[in-house]
Amino acid sequence: MQLLAAFQSEQFTPGSALAGGALIGLAASIMLLFSGRVAGISGIFGGLLTPKAGDIGWRAAFVAGLLVGGLLLALVAPQVIAPTALRSTPATVLAGLLVGFGVRMGNGCTSGHGVCGLSRFSRRSLVATLSFMATGFLTASLVQLAAEGRL
User: If you write DSSP's letter for every residue of 80-144 in order, what string do you get?
Assistant: First the structure.
């Protein structure tokens, strides 16, 4: 129940962040060890959009697991996934499309490059992750400045 209490907190807690990161790393390592596949979400999902024979089942199970996990969290602790940033639906859709476009341009997402690529010492993943992070920091700062009327 202590883990659930960490989810319910609105404050950042290093313990829950460390536990979550360790679980993601463990899951990615297990997937690579037992299947030889990288746990990059965009690549796994993209494989469902362009399916190959015999390659759909594990991808569908992986994506379904992500969705079921989110649904279970919504049932157990709905306040954790309640929207905190009030943005319009068109702005949210545009943001999602831009992220998808960036993922395709970068040949992978933060989970593929940031978690799996960096752990394999990939230079390409290092550059991609630094680009993701710098762009995210810059965008968040500009949005905050604009919201405060200082831009």
Answer: GSS--S---HHHHHHHHHHHHHHHHHTTS-HIIIIIIIHHTT-HHHHHHHHHHHHHHHHHHHHHH
Establish if 80 belongs to a structural domain: no
Do 108 and 126 form a contact (C-beta atoms < 8 A)?
A: no
Return mean pLDDT, the chain: 84
Structurally, how many domains does the chain consist of? 1
Task: Report pLDDT digits (tens) over 110-134.
Answer: 778 888 888 889 999 999 999 888 9
- Inside any domain, residue 139: yes
State the Cα–Cα distance between residues 74 and 104, nearest whole angstrom: 29
d(CA 117, CA 39): 10
The 3-state DSSP class for residue 37 equals coil
Chain segment 10-65, per-residue pLDDT in tens:
566 788 889 988 998 899 899 989 988 888 888 898 889 888 888 899 999 999 99
By residue range, what is the domain housing residue 138?
85-151
- pTM of this structure: 0.71
- Evaluate whether residue 64 is within a structural domain: no
Q: How far apart are CA 89 and CA 95, in angstroms?
A: 10
27 is a domain residue = no
